[in-house]
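Hi, here's the filled form for the chain we discussed.

Project: internal
Contact: R.S.
Residues: 265
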Amino acid sequence: MPRSLIFLKLGGSLITEKSGRERARRTVIDRLAQETHDALIAKPETRLLIGHGSGSFGHPAAARFGIIGGAHTSQEWHGFAEVWSAANRLHRIMLDALKAVGLSVLSFPPSALAIADRGEIAALPVEPIQRALEAGLVPVVQGDVAFDRSRGATILSTERVLTYLAAELRPSRILLAGIEDGVYQDYPAREQLLSELTPTMLPEVRLEVSEATDVTGGMQHKVEEAFKLAHSDGQPEVRIFSGETAGNLQAALLGYALGTRIVPS
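And the returned structure, exactly as it came back:
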């Protein structure tokens, strides 16, 4: 049976309390880890790469130090290290939860690998991640700080990292799990969930703005990056769905059509 590659993104709003500060939703994280494990047991031919957001860990620190705009002074570089430290604390929680259920995870932090230019990834070595996947390991990436040739420093969202990797690794499916059931036509009423979203529909769709600190732009950024993901070589199936309901993540990994499908044209 051919092996299929799935990218899974666990949003910061799903795995942290974004209205607080450095508050991980540990019960939710543990459940998501278990659902991921159970799905891979059910479909052992699946290869999986996991990315996660920074939520109430990285975003408040990034906003406080202004790293999204770059780093040049000693104080700004101090902030760069502080943002890295905050994001890494959540990354450690995620890795430990995934390992606790028996997944063989390996961390690939963008801060140690990627070089950006004007906020976009200019270089990121893919071969180590490719080899990890071929060995049956589960690579884990995250939203993170990165060195930037033009700005000194920048913030790379998880979606931006996945977009770069998708062009090289060509996943068959990309699953973006958050707290919303998908993309709504009528936010904030949340009565008309879209089964699919195309670029021509965007002018008629009101995308919600994050109610908490989100330096990477909230749902609008996620949808923009989701379209880039959908345009990747091989045109993977891209879905935005909710991981809040128990069983949803496992079902999505097993191929059930949840949430909103992002259609490139």
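Let me know if anything looks off before we file it.
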